[in-house]
Amino acid sequence: MGPWIMIAAAAAPQAAAQAVPAAPAPAGPDRGVIAYPPGFFAESKPISAYDMVLRVPGFAFDKGVVVRGLAGSSGNVLIDGQPPVSKNDGLDDILKRIPAASVERIELIRGGAPGIDMDGRTILANVVRRQTAGFRGAISPSMFFIYNGKVLPSLRFEGQWRWSGGRAAEFSQVLGTGILPNNEYGIGSRFRYNADGSVRLHSHVDGYSYGARINTTAGYETPLFGGHAHLNGALIFNPGSVEIYDHYRSLAGLEYEFDDNQKRQVELGGRFNRPLNDRVGLETTGFQQFSHLTTTVHFEGPGLTRNFRLDRQSTESTGRVQFRLRGPPGVTLETGAEGAFNHLDSKTDLTVNSRAIAVPAANVQVEELRGEVFARGTWQATSTLTLEAGVRQEASQVTSDGDLVLRKSLHFLKPRAALTWAPDGLSQFRLRVEREVGQLNFDDFVASSNVASTGTVVAGNPDLTPQQAWVYEAAYERRFWGAGAALLTVRHFDITDTVDRGPARDGRGAIIRDPLTGQAAADRPDNIGPGTKDEIQASLTVPLQRFGIRAAQLKLQSTWRDTQVTDPITGRSREISGQHPIDWEGHYSQDLPRWNATWGIDAIGGYRERFFRLAEIETKKYSTWVVVYGEYKPRPDLSIRVEVNGVTLRNARRIREVYVGPRNLGRLDYTDERSAEFRGSVNVRVRKTLG
Q: What is the pLDDT of residues 328-342, one digit of tens each?
């Protein structure tokens, strides 16, 4: 599982003898918060809050996931103690718009703190901004030079205005072009082997990808009705396409695939805070989102043409109200409720050789009405011991019309308890027990576009139950050498209603079968029963001053996973689809104050993921990706950054083991292996600060 586990375990005892105080924590008994002032980051001359957050010892940035509702959607960084009321405007982009000069301090919250909603996490960073009036902005042109000769320009403008009295506004415009984050982009080869290992097909693959970002965001905050209001909005247009040429070598012929995605999103969010008296505070939050996705896939091969089209429109309306109560010394209580209404209208068409093909649950209209009430509290029992506990009760009703008509109600109780013990200023132990309930993913409700290129039908399924798990977590953290940190975390998940792949069913729940063979005809996302997941995660931040390397930092992180579930097709135990057995990454950075420069190396480790379908096992393997960068700041208001993406070639392999009929019959038809290499790019970015 990589070397980082052993390094982290060995670093802690050595640190005890050599430790020096870290950045000072705020006054008070809470020893779970470490504050890093601007001086801590001075040598690196950060441009934005994002640059500062990446330098925080013992912290790995997570931008969060896009899910419906407000709970569970935010990343692990707060801004002035609150998560942004935004989803498609990424947390990394939001932090990049906050100038470093506007940051008063970065707080690292470990294990919880009074008045802070940890949202199921044990570590958060909090960006605390200065309340200084004035204007700050930046304009950032950039160019991507791709290995195949393409040059892709982008331009970003951002501005922030702050006035006395607590009023502020911000605006950002991004006009970008680039490569879609699609691992099929590149050049390579494909082999198709018969069951006996002989070569059935050999071909050369060329993949081309293009994407664009046209993003407009704006926000405004002001005192209002004795409190403070913040409004924000985003208009996002992300068109993109992938084109793949597959030239046969062993015989005459060509396969051609063109994927086109047109995605438009509008979101509006707002938050209002107001103290009701000296012990009770009110917070209300609202969010509205509109999304329209059109996907078309055209595939051509010898004697075969497939056309797939998906038109999906969705809306989300979410609101939350909560009260924060200050109890006895060291006690903070919160209670509130959240409600959400979600709507999906999806239409799917598939033709093969100009003949319409029926896809299960192709055209559906789904509505979800969901509500949740919650109560939680934080108790600072002693200067070294903190207890956080809470409970949520969720109820929802899901209805579907069209190809699949259903009505169902769901209820989940979600308790949580977390205990933090900090015996001294350098060590911390954390324990957490929580029942996590996933959210229904609207992407699982509609048919997959892979049907056009692979011929494998993956139907939609609105009749899903959210995956649930009891999570048991233990963590140990050790601070050393001032800016060093080692963290080891162990988690166990007892999962029910595992969301994976199962045979497609009709409206009565019967398996849809091929009329000729009587075998299951397609698969779909489905609940396939109980499962388990075990994780061991280690991270290490090492300041390299002790080794004679001035102003340098090394960050390492590794996660090992083991998952188990019973395969609904074969009845045998296997891993859960889409899980990575191991992830790792390493980041080296060094400041060169004498030359007003910074340089570094980022390495994202290779990984493997596997998907188990009705008549196929698909395995994807990705090699390690390395980026070398350098940033030069000739003036305080000007920076020039050069990134070499792909110092090592990025290899993406897709291995499809395709069976004759369902996998439980054991009749392997062929194995298809496609390998594509992306040979890198150079990105040059200039940033001019305004104001």
A: 888 889 999 999 999
The Cα–Cα gap between 283 and 271 comes to 7
CA-based nearest residue to 491, from 531, 529, 537, 530: 537
Instruction: Please give the structure tokens belonging to residue 493.
Output: 């998940």
Alpha-carbon span 384 to 30, nearest angstrom: 8
CATH architecture for residues 31-131? Beta Complex (2.170)
Tokens for 297? 């896939």
| E-only strand ranges, 422-481 | 427-437, 468-480
**Residue 182: what pLDDT?**
53
Tokens of 691: 């104001």
Question: Which has more confidence, 676 or 197?
Answer: 197
Phi-psi region of 44 (alpha: psi -120 to 50; beta: other; left: phi over 0): alpha
Task: Return d(Cα 563, Cα 611) in angstroms, integer.
Answer: 13
- Each domain of the chain, given as residue ranges in start order, spans 31-131
Sequence-distant (6+) residues with CB within 8 A of 586 are 554, 555, 556, 557, 601, 602, 603, 605
Q: Could you give the CA distance from residue 640 to residue 632 in angstroms, rounded to a whole number?
A: 5
Sign of CA dihedral 71, 74, 75, 77: negative
> Which residue stretches of 435-541 are H helix?
450-454
Q: Which amino acid is at 379?
A: W
Question: Which residues have C-beta within 8 Å of that of residue 452, sequence separation ≥ 6?
Answer: 257, 297, 298, 299, 306, 307, 308, 350
Residue 434 has a CB neighbour count (10 Å cut-off) of: 17
Q: Which pTM does this prediction carry? A: 0.84
> In which region does residue 509 sit, left (phi positive, over 0), alpha (psi from -120 to 50) or beta (all else)?
left
Largest CA distance in the chain: 80
